[in-house]
Amino acid sequence: MDVNNVGRLNVLDWISLILVIVGALNWAAVGLFNYNLVSALFGVMSSITRTIYVLVGLAGLYLAFVSPVFCRRKL
User: How many alpha carbons fall within 13 Å on the CB side of residue 14?
Assistant: First the structure.
């Protein structure tokens, strides 16, 4: 990511952000209501469910890796 484009998010940034937010909301539903929306929609540990979990995890790792770039400011 270019330092000059710190304020702009590319497509991968947006997809990762959306996946992490959806994952966080799903975990909030699990913790508060004991309801797993992903498993309810796609089946308990089906291939699709596992793929979604992996994508959310990868998105989280991606955002953890690039978050220092988001925090940089021009002086």
Answer: 5
